[in-house]
Each structure stands twice: as C-alpha cells, then as structure tokens.
C-alpha cells in the first residue's frame, strides 16, 4: 500500500446486505475492500467462530494493493450473518447465498478463494453458475466425500465438533493447535479473539449441532461432477492438514480438467495464514496469468 492509502480493517470494510434468493431470505454480513475492476471473493471455513476476516486477515491487503476488489462473505450461520439450520447441502446453501449477495451488489463475475467449507462452497457455486466464475483457488477443501487413507471424521473435524458442543477455551486450544503445523504463532490474543467470536453467537453453535443432527453429511461429494468445472483452478494444501486430508486435493487435481496443485510442507489446514506471504504471491501470480 502507498503512504496515501489506509490499510483495510475489519470495521472499515464491514457491510450488511439483505438477500432473497431461492429459499433464503436473510441478512448477510460481508467485508468489502478495494475498488478494482476484478473482484475476488473469499469464503471461510466451518469452524466455530470463523468469519471471512478471521480466516483471511493476512490475505486481503496484498490483493487490494494489487488492484482487486475483495469481498469476504460471512456464510449464513457464521459471525454477524443471520442464523440458519441447514438440513441439506451446506455447500449449495452457501453458493445460493453468494449468488444473492453478488446479484444485490451487481457483480456478474468473480474469482473465488475458498478455505475448507469455503472451498466446498466455491465448487458448488462454480457448478451452479459456471459463467460467473473466473478462476478458483481451493484450499483444504473443494468436495466432501470419504478419504481412502484417513479415518473419518478426521481428528480435526472431531475437535471442531467438540467446540461446537462445548465451547471452552481448552477445547478451542485443542482444535486450534492442530489448525496449523507450527503452533508457535498462536497467541493468547488469537485464542481469546476466536473464543469471543464463538461465545457471541450461541445461536450459531446450537444451529450447527442441529444441522449435523438433521444431516451429518453437510458437504456432498462433488467427485462425479468435477469434470464440469472449466475454470482454471489452483488447489492448495498443507501436507500436515489434519482436518481435510491431502488426498482430497489429489481427487480435485484428478477431477478438475484445468487444475494444478501446490502442497506446502510443514503446513496444516490454514495455508493462507501459516504461509501467508507465499500464498499471496502464488494467488496473485495465478490470477494475473
Ligand atoms: O468438514 C469439512 O469438510 C470442512 C471443515 C472446515 O470447513 C473446517 C474449517 C476450519 C477453519 O478453517 C476455521 O474454522 O477457520
């Protein structure tokens, strides 16, 4: 950023929109930063207390500085967006919400960066609205479905569900300690901010548990449809991802015709945070060329 521009903050970019699309009629929170001709949407993961800003705070500024408009959508049921109980496909529900948000903002075509659930949702959006997607960046997700190698639910998903059921600082630390490979950057401040986000919305916690009870498979397996995705796709994974295993990334690489895969060594489920500088450079290079 130049000396004249102010770095985007959560509060300065915070916005609300009311969407009425398909079966959804709700208020969404999003962050909107930058004024570029091209728009990049970032979609967060499904952990308790997650939000666009919590997941992507290390990635917004470099994209804005490079000339992109960046939108972080808080999915229904997270952060300051309205609550929802999801009895069907959460990936498709989020994709519908995104379509409603983009229609309301008058944005026709976007690049999508998705983390975990956000990547599942980005694929759902691309399948339903192929003409509205430029490029896809899928990180630690992109499709549900069983791993042939890792027992499921994975240890990370079990810890995540434990926080939803019992949101204590101890449970939160157990979960966050395996988000990343190197835990030395996890500060007490980070734990506390995340716990505050979690405890601010007991309704979101209850609804997530109710959704799981109604439909344990919130994220469908898009495997048979991956071949329909024409968008150039960058798949990014952490080798030590203990939430969504690396073999899911290989399935995406095999299934999406125009995909490439980058695997970070010494990296868990939060590649965009743990390896932020390199992640940002790779994404910018991928979007430009
Ligand atoms: O169950 C799945 O396949 C998705 C799990 C998921 O989205 C986990 C995300 C966790 C975070 O990145 C987060 O909460 O910040």
Question: Secondary-structure element sequence?
Answer: HEEEHHEHEHEHHHHEHEHH
> Quick one: overall form?
globular
Total of helices: 12
Average predicted confidence as pLDDT: 97
User: Major β-sheet, in short?
Assistant: 8 strands, mixed
The kinds of small molecule bound in this structure are: ligand LMH73ZQ5
Distance between the termini: 22 Å
Q: What is the spatial order of strands in the main beta sheet?
A: 1-2-4-3-5-6-7-8
Q: Beta fraction of the residues?
A: 15-25%
The helix content, as a percent range, equals 25-40%
**What's the Cα radius of gyration?**
17 Å
Q: Regions with pLDDT < 50 over 5+ consecutive residues?
A: none
SS content category: alpha/beta
Total strands? 8
Function: Catalyzes the cleavage of the C5-C6 bond of 2-hydroxy-6-oxononadienedioate and 2-hydroxy-6-oxononatrienedioate, a dienol ring fission product of the bacterial meta-cleavage pathway for degradation of phenylpropionic acid.
Keywords: Aromatic hydrocarbons catabolism, Hydrolase
Pfam family, one: Abhydrolase_1
Protein name: 2-hydroxy-6-oxononadienedioate/2-hydroxy-6-oxononatrienedioate hydrolase
């Amino acid at each position: 950023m130049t000396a004249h521009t102010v770095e985007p903050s959560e509060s300065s970019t915070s916005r609300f929109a009311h969407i009425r699309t398909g079966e959804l009629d709700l208020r969404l929170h999003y962050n909107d930063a930058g004024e570029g001709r091209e728009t990049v949407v970032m979609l967060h993961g499904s952990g308790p207390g997650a939000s666009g800003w919590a997941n992507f705070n290390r990635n917004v500024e470099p994209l804005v500085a490079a000339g992109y408009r960046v939108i972080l959508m808080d999915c229904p049921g997270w952060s300051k967006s309205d609550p929802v109980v999801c009895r069907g496909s959460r990936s498709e529900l989020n994709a519908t919400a995104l379509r409603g948000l983009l229609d309301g903002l008058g944005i026709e075509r976007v690049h999508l960066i998705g983390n975990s659930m956000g990547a599942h949702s980005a694929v759902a959006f691309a399948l339903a609205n192929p003409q509205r997607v430029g490029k896809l960046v899928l990180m630690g997700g992109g499709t549900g479905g069983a791993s042939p190698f890792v027992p499921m639910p994975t240890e990370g998903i079990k810890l995540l569900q434990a926080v939803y059921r019992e949101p204590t600082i101890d449970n939160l630390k157990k979960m966050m300690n395996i988000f990343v490979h190197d835990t030395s950057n996890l500060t007490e401040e980070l734990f506390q901010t995340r716990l505050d986000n979690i405890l601010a919305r007991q309704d979101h916690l209850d609804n997530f548990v109710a959704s799981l009870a109604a439909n344990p498979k919130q994220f469908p397996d898009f495997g048979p449809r991956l071949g329909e995705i024409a968008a150039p796709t960058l798949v990014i994974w952490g080798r030590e991802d203990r939430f969504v295993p690396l073999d899911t990334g290989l399935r995406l690489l095999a299934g999406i015709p125009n995909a490439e895969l980058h695997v970070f060594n010494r990296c868990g489920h939060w590649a965009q945070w743990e390896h932020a500088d390199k992640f940002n450079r790779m994404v910018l290079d991928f979007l430009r060329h």
